[in-house]
Design goal:
The protein has two domains: about 230 residues, Glycogen Phosphorylase B (Rossmann fold); about 160 residues, Rossmann fold (3-Layer(aba) Sandwich). Helix 1 packs across helix 16, helix 3 packs parallel to helix 4 and helix 9 runs parallel beside helix 10. It is globular. Strand 11, helix 12 and strand 12 form a beta-alpha-beta unit. It has about 425 residues and is of the alpha/beta class. Helices cover about 40% and strands about 15% of the residues. The model has no long low-confidence stretch (mean pLDDT about 95).
Length: about 425
């Protein structure tokens, strides 16, 4: 379904996302809410997504970019039927998987280059959401104005994963999986305009991926504060803690949090809700078993935004234990619900959560004892919980809504299409 024509003075945007999964990772969330708000501002947006498909709102166009979907549930790393191979991109995607790599960005960029070849007159600008394959660079070199979103440098993910690899085999497969990074670094250094979501990410992208600072701009992501809000009919549950982690990787810090929970349960009645689906026999599942926490830890996945907001509302404390974040949707979702937050100082979290003691409590990453101390402080002080919760929601409403994100992104389109330099940052302190 194509996008609707743009109003006079507005832009026609081809929005690219190589996998649109709305339930795992932040890229699908970013795509849905940003495109909706851009459409509300009068821009015309058509999303070109590989599988799994995104959830999109009325007024946003959609074109499916067929892929092999090699990592789908319930058969990840599947062997496709011969009839599924119809292009060079299919062979590339499958071949990279066979070598223990991740080929979706490369294959998507090959497909989207072909799809957009005859649609230059349908759009004013391309907005690519973190594919950074060679096909994206070819589109730019072919004359397309282009804005690239890079949420944070994936070089950090690779470094943390390698630090936590325990065997030679794990280190080898980790390096192979992140092999796509060489391609992405090579491409993004040549793109003219890169949007990222925090000043911390801007500094790290410049340092680790060598993107010049003058090509980088900061526009924060947002939250739907009309859904993520306190609900009058939701009752707090004493001792309830909550963490949202959409992927079972060391960077999310779930194992240090579970070690903190094991220490806290000795002194008080608590339970933990984990929004996410840990891998069977993975690091988190093994930690739950090792620490004897299966009776007080519940994992939940596949909930709607309102259901998630209501779960936040039942919690006395929300925790963001990540070792690194380029931004943090879970942090602003909890804050928007008026729930006090304990977060680490990993990456951009201090930027997002704000001054420790005013809008949340900040602790050292990968430190279970520091998590214990901060969680205990909040559980023992109802007035502090109330103050941090109220201040956190106020911070979100003023800084981190999707309308703010859309207006800042549109300002980047304006700059690119008029030949002006990108703004240094938009509405973010």
């Amino acid at each position: 379904m194509p996008a609707q024509p743009a109003e006079p003075g507005k832009h026609r945007i081809a929005f690219l996302i190589y996998r649109g999964n709305p339930r795992c990772g932040g890229q699908g969330v970013y795509t849905r809410h940003l495109t909706r708000e851009l459409a509300r501002l009068g821009h015309s947006v058509e999303v070109f997504s590989g599988p799994p498909w995104p959830e999109l709102d009325e007024g946003v166009g959609f074109t499916a970019v067929r892929g092999l979907d090699l990592y789908r549930d319930p058969d990840p790393f599947r062997i496709p039927a011969r009839s599924e191979f119809t292009s060079l991109a299919d062979l590339a995607e499958f071949g990279v998987m066979l070598s223990a790599g991740f080929g979706e960005p490369l294959a998507y960029s090959m497909r989207i280059k072909k799809i957009l070849a005859n649609r230059r007159h349908d759009f004013d600008i391309i907005h690519d959401n973190q594919c950074m394959g060679p096909g994206i660079l070819s589109l730019h070199r072919g004359g397309w104005p282009l804005l690239e979103t890079l949420h944070h440098p994936i070089t950090v993910d690779r470094s943390i994963a390698l630090d936590h690899a325990e065997t030679f085999g794990q280190r080898y497969t980790t390096r192979r999986w992140f092999g796509f990074l060489r391609m992405q670094v090579r491409v993004v250094k040549q793109l003219p305009a890169v949007l990222t979501v925090s000043h911390n990410s801007k500094v790290d992208i410049n340092a680790q991926m060598r993107v010049p600072l003058e090509r980088l701009t900061v526009v924060p992501v947002g939250v739907d504060h009309n859904v993520f809000k306190p609900y009058d009919d939701v009752v707090k549950k004493k001792g309830r803690l909550m963490v949202t982690s959409s992927s079972d990787v060391p960077m999310k810090g779930l194992v240090p949090l579970l070690e903190a929970i094991a220490k806290l349960r000795v002194e008080r009645d608590i339970d933990l809700i984990v929004i996410g689906k840990p891998k069977a026999k993975g690091r988190v599942a093994n930690a739950l078993e090792r620490l004897g926490l299966n009776d007080i830890v519940t994992t939940i996945s596949g909930v709607s935004d309102e259901e998630l907001a209501r779960l936040y509302g039942e919690a006395e404390v929300a925790i963001v234990p990540s070792l690194y974040e380029g931004f943090s949707l879970p942090a602003i979702e909890a804050m928007s619900c008026g729930v006090p937050v304990v977060a680490t100082m990993g990456g951009a979290l201090p930027e997002v959560v704000g001054v420790s003691g005013e809008t949340g409590l900040l602790v050292e990453p990968n430190n279970p004892d520091a998590l214990v101390q901060a969680i205990r402080q909040l559980l023992d002080d109802a007035q502090l919980r109330a103050r941090l919760g109220a201040n956190g929601r106020e911070r979100v409403i003023h800084r981190f809504t999707w309308e703010v994100t859309a207006r800042g992104t549109a300002a980047c389109y304006d700059a690119i299409l008029s030949g002006r330099p990108l703004p240094d940052s938009v509405n973010f302190d």
